[in-house]
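To illustrate the input format used throughout this study, we show a single complete record. The first block contains the structure-token representation of the backbone; no residue identities are included at this stage. The design step must infer an amino acid for every position from geometry alone.
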């Protein structure tokens, strides 16, 4: 599960950077170029995914 959390974190950070730079504008008003609130949302989701990765345990081998 650590790899899944890492992939989710990377995707969230890439989307956050794209929102901050104004490259994408999904689910937002097209009149605004930069979406700070969306940037913050995806950055927080990325951080939460990293916390999840940190607390995910190793698989037990039988």
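Output of the design step:
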């Amino acid at each position: 599960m650590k790899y899944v959390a890492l992939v989710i974190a990377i995707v969230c950070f890439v989307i956050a950077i794209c929102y901050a730079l104004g490259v994408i504008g999904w689910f937002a008003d097209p009149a605004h170029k930069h979406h700070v609130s969306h940037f913050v949302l995806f950055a927080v989701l990325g951080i939460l995914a990293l916390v999840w990765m940190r607390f995910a345990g190793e698989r037990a081998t039988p």
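Structural context for interpreting the output: Residues 2 and 54 are 8 Å apart (CA to CA). The chain is about 65% helix and 0% strand.
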